[in-house]
Amino acid sequence: MSSFLPSWIRTMFRVFWAMPLVTKLCTFWLTTIILAAIFADFIPKLADPSYQGFLFGTDVTNDGQSLHHWLGTDNNSRDILSRLIYGTRVSLTVAVTAVAFGTFFGGLLGSFVGYVRGRREAAIMASIDVILAFPALVLLLTVVTLLGKRNLLVISLVVGVLAIPYYARVSRANALAVSRREFVAAARAIGTKDRTILWREVIPNVMPTVLAFALVSAAVTVVLEGTLAFLGLSVQPPTPSWGVMINAARADLRINIWPVIWPSLMLVFTVYSLNNVGDWFRIRTAHKTAAL
Amino acid sequence: MNMTLRKRGTGMRLTAVLLAAVMVATACGSDSDDTSPSATTVATETTAAPEAPETTTAPTTEAPATTATPTTTTEAPPVGPAQGGDASVGLEAEAPGLRPWEDTCSSPCYNMMAAVFDKLFEQYADGSYGAFLAESISANDDFTVWTMNLRPDVVFHDGSELTAQTIVDMFVVHQTGAQSAGVIASSKLINVEATGDLEVTYTLSGTNAIFVANLSRAPIGMVFAPSTGADEDAVTAAANAPIGTGPFMVDSRDVDNKTVMVRNPNYWMSDSFGTQLPYLDSVTFHPIPDEGTRLSSLASGTVTAMQSLRQASIRDARDTEGLWLFEHQGNNTGGGMFNVTVAPYDDARVRKGLITMSNQAATIEALGGEGISLPTTQLFASESPFYSEAIAAAYPTHDMAAGSALVQEYIDDPDRSDGLAVGEKISVTLSCPPDPTLIAAMQVSQVLWEASGLVDVELTGFDQATHIGMAVGAADGTFIGTHDIHCWRWGSEDDPAAGMLSGFGDPFDPSGAGALNFSNWYDEEAYGYVVEATLTDDVAERAALYEKFGLIMVEAMPIYFSGGTATVIATAEGLGGLDSWEMPDGEAGIGHPSAEGRWSQAYWAAE
Fold it and tell me: Are B443 and A61 within 8 A, CB to CB?
């Protein structure tokens, strides 16, 4: 595979190959569901996730696994596999948005205050502590309820904004340590501007840790979206998400447990995979930082 | 005319006892895997009913006086149950307050109120009315003056005595009560006078042949202590510490957690064997909103009883061993309504088109009611004397082409009321409380309506209190709700007169005559039939008038139906008495319609 592929792909393969077996499997799982979510519209014979065949005489509700419906149907006779795949879009969109918001805004903010210190740090961190003092779920429920609209964009943005303080804390802690390193002191000694030191020395050294944290917090976000959906506060029906599916199926739990099992397994595998890959990444980047 | 007492022969009672014994034997006799006790017993009669939206509320409409069809069940024969034991009941919601005249109440709340308060009149098993806290009532020839005699030697929980003056004092409070004021207006009640120590005279502004029905409903039928209305503080305090004459007294109330009620040692009523009621030492009510959790709480012994109006819960309860099920299906039905003051629902073509596209059987299946509830077409169940075959025939059946044609006609109308251009799709919003089965049912409607290519559907959901609040207008007609298409329940076992008067009156009438008209649909001719039906107590004549009303309503389609509401009170094995409670004259009471239990006569069967 070597010479035909671009170097970055070869690097990725090398990294993948160096992973422990479990981490390989986790990475494979995450890659698969991300690709499935992105290309769901092009998967041949994948049913419309909102199609209720029982209304048109083609399917039955709460059907078991079959060749036609590999994972069975739900209480509205919709194809569970299709809804799982399309539901991945919601879970991952919320997770990616939260990670992006957190990493970018939280990472920058934390790095900044960790480097500049002083009153600005005290003021910003005090504000962040106040936000963090509220139970996250309660704050989230309040914001979502007040906004009224509950589509994917709103949910993603709300979760993303609420993620910022957590990232800010992590990046500040790392920025504090990095700011005391010799190369930062050296840069100061030769009269380098603070802005340059921040962008060239501090942030690049803080980001690996923030990214490792992002992978772990993405797992938390996936669960959070599921919780919101279970409470009826995530995307509105008929848009599928794993939490929405679990919530919808609980009324029929005693007669058909599969519509709860499948999305729950998706949640478990995805959260475990994100945690596992996040841990691996953290260990790997921690080693590199120390090597500096 | 004396509306009170009727006697049935002892043969009937003996038959009932024997039947009950057979049922108990059946229930207890089989432990095999294929027939759980509950499954066996319940089967009696589980037909029809449905579910639909959920809401509940003070049901607008109402149902007949003679119907009921208590279904069910299990039960040990009433061979002199002994006093003792406790019950803890899982309710589907917390009561917002325990003031019958003031607080918006539905099934869970009425379970609690009925334990604290007695009504002046109650319903027999056949739906007719009999004296309870009252002893008798009679009317003049044109039904404008009613004279009622109260039962003697009845005392309230605070030790005060029930007298005619109590009823007069209650009337003062009733006139400003959020629930009672509308009932007073629709029943035409203008004056209450104490004409003796225990004799009360009600004067009406016009003929109302079924006035007694009003005295059997919570808002003005439940009797509370005179001290309750002493001042504003007392009225407020009564929300959580009510004082009635009922079988239980509120011992403690921790809102959203539990309300503990203990036996009223001075309760006036005894059973036919001379045992003073209630049998139970205490009953505790726990709000457990989640259906699955409530049933699991019962199955695990956390509570000893639960109530539900959800078909899926009934289905699951039937499959749970070790329970006694008290099921009921009557006039209450699921469905919904259009706010006819909002475009495009202000056009009957849209309303009827959407309902014609709907599929009742599929909706019921999504609600988990397949095999439990049947499609409904009107406010009355088929066993009701007011049921109309003509209305049933006129109610739209699922027909996509016909429904689409009606909506298309609206869309192509240059004068369409929503202001959009000719040919543009209509946009509708359908809302139900966020129960999984209701969400599933909403999605059935959404798919069918959108399949026409003529409708964009948005689904929303709010908690039950908000859902109800959106549809409840102001009594003076200045606010008519913020809802669009709203899930709702309709009908009850009460006489339809009172409910229909306020449920279909003019919503803009400042007198509050249409305060409970949630759809805001008012048709002068149709309402005239409802009014006319209060002028006679002849059931056949009234049925004909309600049929005329119903046929006009089906054409206008302001409200719609999915299927009758099957309800259940499920108890731990041994806790019975809910379907065999008796009136003071020893006749059988109406049982447990809408999962409203009379806990005064519940008892633990001896092992």
Answer: no
Of A55, A248, A252, the CB nearest to B447: A55
Which DSSP category does B595 fall into?
A: G
- Residue A2 has a pLDDT of 53
Q: Which residue has the tokens 């009269």?
A: A191
In the numeric block, which tokens belong to residue A197? 């030191």
If you average pLDDT over residues B354-365, what whole number do you get?
A: 96
Task: Name, in order, each residue with C-beta under 8 angstroms of B483's C-beta and a sequence gap of 6 or more.
Answer: B337, B339, B431, B470, B471, B518
Sequence-distant (6+) residues with CB within 8 A of B489 are B52, B53, B54, B55, B56, B57, B59, B309, B332, B333, B334, B335, B565
Residue B316: closest C-alpha in chain A: A254
Backbone angles phi, psi at A242, to 5 degrees: -60, -45
Give how far A142 is from chain B: nearest CA, Å: 14
Which are the contacts of B529, defined by CB distance < 8 A and separation ≥ 6?
B545, B546, B548, B549, B552
**Which of A48, A51, A54, A55 should one mutate to test binding to chain B, selecting the residue with the greatest count of B CBs within 10 A?**
A55
User: A238 to chain B, minimum CA–CA distance in Å?
Assistant: 7
**How many separate helices (H) and strands (E) can be counted in chain A?**
12, 0
- Rg, C-alpha atoms of chain A: 22
- Verify whether the Cβ–Cβ distance A252 to B446 is below 8 Å: no
Per the document, the length of chain B is 607
Cα torsion B591, B595, B599, B605: sign: positive
Could you tell me if A232 lies within 8 Å of chain B, comparing CB atoms? yes
CA distance B291 to B51: 14
E strand or H helix at B458: strand B455-460
Choose which CATH entry (3.10.105.10, 3.40.50.10380, 3.30.300.30, 3.20.20.330) describes domain B331-368+378-563: 3.10.105.10
Q: Which residues of B touch A55 (CB under 8 A)?
A: 359, 362, 444, 447-448, 451
CB of A62 less than 8 A from some CB of B? no
Q: Which of B312, B437, B459 sits opposite A237 (nearest CB)?
A: B459
Furthest-apart CA atoms within chain A: distance in Å: 79
The per-residue b/e assignment along B96-129, b for 16 or more CB within 10 angstroms, e otherwise, is: bbbbbbbbbbbbbbbbbbbbbbbbbbbbbbebbb
Give dist(CA A67, CA A71) in Å, integer: 9
B602: left (phi over 0), alpha (psi -120 to 50) or beta: beta
Domains in chain A, start-ordered, CATH in brackets? 77-291 (1.10.3720.10)
In this complex, do A252 and B312 lie within 8 Å of one another by their Cβ atoms?
Answer: yes
For the stretch B134-184, pLDDT in tens is: 999 999 999 999 999 999 999 999 999 999 999 999 999 999 888 888 889
Taking the C-alpha atoms of residue B515 and residue B526, their distance in angstroms, rounded to an integer, is 17
Whether B437 and A251 lie within 8 Å, measured CB to CB: yes
Q: A65-103: per-residue pLDDT in tens?
A: 999 999 999 999 999 999 999 999 988 888 898 899 999
- Out of B312, B365, B442, the one facing A237 most closely (by C-beta) is B442
Q: Which residues of A touch B444 (CB under 8 A)?
A: 52, 55, 76
Here the ipTM equals 0.80
Give residue ranges of B with CB < 8 Å to any A CB.
291-292, 310, 312, 315-316, 319, 359, 362, 365-366, 368, 434-437, 439-440, 442-444, 446-448, 451, 458-461
| Residue B563 pLDDT exceeds 80 | yes
Under DSSP, is residue B492 helix (H, G, I), strand (E, B) or coil?
Answer: coil
